[in-house]
Amino acid sequence: MTRPNATLPAEHERIEALVELMKQEQQFLVAADADGLAELTTRKATLVQELAQLARQRHGALGGAGFVSSEAGMEPWLAAAGDDASRAAWTALLALTAEAKELNRVNGMLINRQMAHNQTVLNALRTPAAAPEATLYGAKGQTFGSAPSRRFVLG
């Protein structure tokens, strides 16, 4: 039977790599580097999948040892095992997870800010300055729409 602490080194390695990718992601978001972001996305998704699989293995080992098959079962297992090295590894893993969650929160804010900026730019491109919302551009660049005509009659 696998012990619940068996996955901790691999989980630590993956979460550490994820934190580094999220820091790079933050730099790409600030620089609005879409190509860099696209390259990171696949690597990030792979790490998240691997972390989920390792957590499932740990949860299964906790259940097999008679503890709650979730994160909540880890503390009681650590208390029963009396293993200081495992407790230190678990504490380090929790700290890295907290860092990843904070990076994810900040990166989400940066993404939302960039999306709002992009929407503002798109709106500006769709509506010429000082023109009503209904004005559109035709294929040859001429404007048309439901706005009243401003033709002057000279005579």
Automatic annotation (TrEMBL):
UniProt keyword list: Bacterial flagellum biogenesis, Cell projection, Cilium, Flagellum
Q: Which residues form the signal peptide?
A: none
Q: Does the keyword DNA-binding apply?
A: no
Is Cell inner membrane given among the entry's keywords? no
Q: Please provide an example of a Pfam family that matches this protein in its UniProt record.
A: FlgN
Its family remark reads: Belongs to the FlgN family.
Report the protein's function: Required for the efficient initiation of filament assembly.
Name by which UniProt lists this protein? Flagella synthesis protein FlgN
Species name:
Massilia suwonensis
